[in-house]
Design a protein that fits this description.
Blueprint (H helix, E strand, L loop, with lengths): L58 E6 L2 E8 L2 E4 L2 E3 L2 H9 L5 H4 L20
Antiparallel strand pairs: 1-2, 2-3, 3-4
Length: 125
Amino acid sequence: MATKSTKKAPGKGAKKGPPKKGKATPKPAAKAPKAAPATPAPEATPRPRDPRLPRPGALLTRTFQGKEVRVQVLEAGFLYDGKTWRSLSGIAKAVSGTPWNGFLFFGLQGRAKAPANDGEKGGAK
């Protein structure tokens, strides 16, 4: 009966060691940076105000789990619990512990209506 050799051919299945250090191809020289334009950069324009928001100074109130939540609308943000917040969603999450759309949480926007199904109920006929 013939026995098979258990030796593997060189290069097959053998673990490779660390990469060999050889001559690396030289990197091309970095180009000199271009000179900055002489004109000053235009100032950042403020984002347009969301039309769903009330005017600055308005007070938004909502009762959540028996606690009244009062938020004052500022020119750039919202004031809640002595802190300035960037979004109503952040306040809603802090109050509820769950991610909310801030406009929905404070009643500034209604939920999207479900598509009508023409009076048909689900199920096969």
